[in-house]
């Protein structure tokens, strides 16, 4: 028997075993049908899988992993396929199985007294938000892709979003998880407890592991009281350091009511106005930087006055140049559409070298000045599209290349500009991945910026849980 015949027979045997577990509706083998699972939404990463498996429950997921483990078949776990770092895309070998979790989309329980919701990993983030609201509760994780991303993907990447400033990222919004290990064992860690000091925190080990240690199949998530009042403002300022001072003022005067503080440079806003329809510029003149600020509370009384007085003080001391507080839902939605339209505008405007970085808030202004100058020396025809969740130190410091830039030039520039930006981030004790994950995009760079001890600890954990290296190979580490 030739090696080709052996490979075909092995694949046939694998499909037969998996069909017995998940049935015909749970296995996709056709080349055209598989394609949607083999390419990411950015059209940046693509590969070829041997097949796509879609289990309907935890037990089926466990059986699938047991079979793949026994056959040494590599597995790429995939949720909504909305990632930014290529972490859910198979390689070109054709040997990897894509494990799609989208059939596991049941909301198992809402416990209003305990303020928790238990969901399977394939539930869309937007559906969790809607179910929470139906129960007069609030699930604060909010992303631009919330209508298509799954909570499993959010957990795998420890997603952030626009409400981290008040509520924390996905890890902080999670009480317990259920995980299928690489060998098919099930760890039921679905504990709805806020205090549990009975050993190592296994939950946090799997959250943010990008599918390299196991398959998260369900989670117990924290709910919060549903805010009934919001006050939202759009601000123009002369520089980022002025916004840093404004963040401090908002925290001091508004406390936990401050739930979002988003920053956008003039270049970012102008890009949206050029490429996104149905948006209007909120102010009467241009400003070097802008902020979108939102307060939320249970009582509208005094909320707008609190925000207004904070902004008036900032105007008086020169930290901001102009501001407008939304007077209607439509005006608030326009503010947010500008902010959320930046990613879409970048795709339409050209080729972007993306940087998802985290810095101490006190270091942001100096970093932006140094990085902008350094990139200008390296690539004079590039545009800096700098925006992000400045309230929690997360910037999307992106470099927009001219639309006519060819692939070879783009590849060369990406490597050199990444090093410029990330070296400066590292010098400021920051992180080269804040909320998008490492995936395959930042894997090799991680080795440059992590210490030998840290990398060794990560590899020890990986080897212990996944000795055959079948979980999402080529990603993260």
Q: What is the top-level CATH class of the largest domain?
A: Alpha Beta
Q: How many DSSP helices? A: 16
Question: Would you tell me the structural class of the helices and strands?
Answer: alpha+beta
- Proportion of beta-strand residues: 15-25%
Number of strands: 19
How many structural domains in the coordinates? 4
CATH architecture of the largest domain: 2-Layer Sandwich
Mass-distribution shape = globular
Percent range of helical residues: 25-40%
- Uncertain regions: pLDDT < 50 for 5+ in a row? 1-6
Distance between the termini: 36 Å
Mean pLDDT: 94
- Largest beta-sheet details: 8 strands, antiparallel
Cα gyration radius (Å): 23 Å
CATH topology of the largest domain: Uridine Diphospho-n-acetylenolpyruvylglucosamine Reductase, domain 3
Structural descriptors:
single chain, about 475 residues, alpha+beta, Uridine Diphospho-n-acetylenolpyruvylglucosamine Reductase, domain 2, Uridine Diphospho-n-acetylenolpyruvylglucosamine Reductase, domain 3, Alpha-Beta Plaits, 4 domains, eight-stranded antiparallel β-sheet, five-stranded antiparallel β-sheet, disordered N terminus, FAD binding, flavoprotein
What does the model show?
Strand 8 (174-180) and strand 9 form a beta hairpin. The protein contains 16 helices and 19 strands. The chain has helices spanning 3-22, 31-38, 58-70, 125-134, 151-157, 164-167, 202-206, 240-254, 266-275, 303-316, 329-340, 342-349, 364-378, 407-427, 443-449, 452-465, and strands spanning 27-28, 49-53, 75-78, 96-100, 107-111, 116-120, 137-138, 174-180, 186-189, 215-222, 224-225, 229-237, 258-265, 289-297, 322-325, 351-353, 356-358, 383-389, 394-401. The chain folds into four domains: 3-100, Uridine Diphospho-n-acetylenolpyruvylglucosamine Reductase, domain 2 (2-Layer Sandwich), CATH 3.30.43.10; 107-225, 2-Layer Sandwich (Uridine Diphospho-n-acetylenolpyruvylglucosamine Reductase, domain 3); 229-343, Alpha-Beta Plaits (2-Layer Sandwich), CATH 3.30.70.2190; 350-436, 2-Layer Sandwich (Alpha-Beta Plaits). With 477 residues, it is an alpha+beta fold. The strands form four sheets. Strands 12, 13, 14, 15, 16, 17, 18 and 19 form an eight-stranded antiparallel beta sheet that branches. Strands 5-6-10-8-9 form a five-stranded antiparallel beta sheet.
